[in-house]
Amino acid sequence: MHTSPLKTLRMGALLVVVFLLAGLAMPKWLLFLSTMALSHGLVSLGIVIQMRSDVVSFGQGFVFAAGGYATALAANHLGVTDAILMVLVGGFAATLCTLPFAPLLSRYRGIFFAMLTLAISMVLYGILVKTESLGGSDGFNVSRPTLFGHAIEAGESNWLLYNLAVVVVGIIATLARIYADSVRGLVSLAIRENELRVEYLGASVSQSIAFNFLIAAFMGGAGGALTLMSLGHIDPNFSYWTTSGEFVFVAILAGHQSMLAVFLGSFVVEVVRSFSNLYFPNTWQLAMGLFLLVVIRFLPRGLGSLWMDKRAKKETPP
Asked: d(Cα 132, Cα 120) in Å, to the nearest integer?
């Protein structure tokens, strides 16, 4: 199933407008929760891009933390306070940090790829915890960002950061959909089906996996920057294995077919976590675990298969 880039751009723009209008009716608590869901969903989207080539990163917390810390340091020490520039700093910093690892990791598959990425993330966690200049285990705060040179007031920060997250995520997710439907993106699906045949056809499997890994790094870094601006604080838990596990959880929940499903899954996780912590403290993991089991049992290809399979049937000629 292939969608033209122009149609994808129109659909992406329409969804951005819908979410921006929805933000006008949201209370502050829901704006914050939705912003976190969008920023975390962007990190999980990077895992979904990798899942298309049959590898899963359990170290996405590495790029999440790298982007967040780079953005925080740029804000506190270099005076980079514009929100859009901070997102770009986070994305490119995370990509640069993963650049040396991409050729190495592209040689591995399955559990080896997952464990190596997890190990890299935990090494960063150990460094951050022991580095007092970065706040150690407590982390440090970052002042509220600006937008186009104007200070963001406390009363409107939730709404403006939500709008920023919608636009940034909308652009990146739309480009990700276009990439997934491109020749290189379809090669990733072919790798998932038969890696050896792809090599015989002249495509480089290692280069494709490394390229997807770098794309996921940019998404993770941008998501880390958005999360940092929403929280106003960063600490080593950004890189902890449980954080990476949550991103993988959302990616499995969504499946690799739909980009929109990733953010739906992320929103579900944030809602369940928020209300479970409020009414049933320390039980949200149990609720999400049961929900994931149900999805795996009845929707083994993820939430996205609910509408993507129906769409494929409609487009298939009789």
From this structure: 20
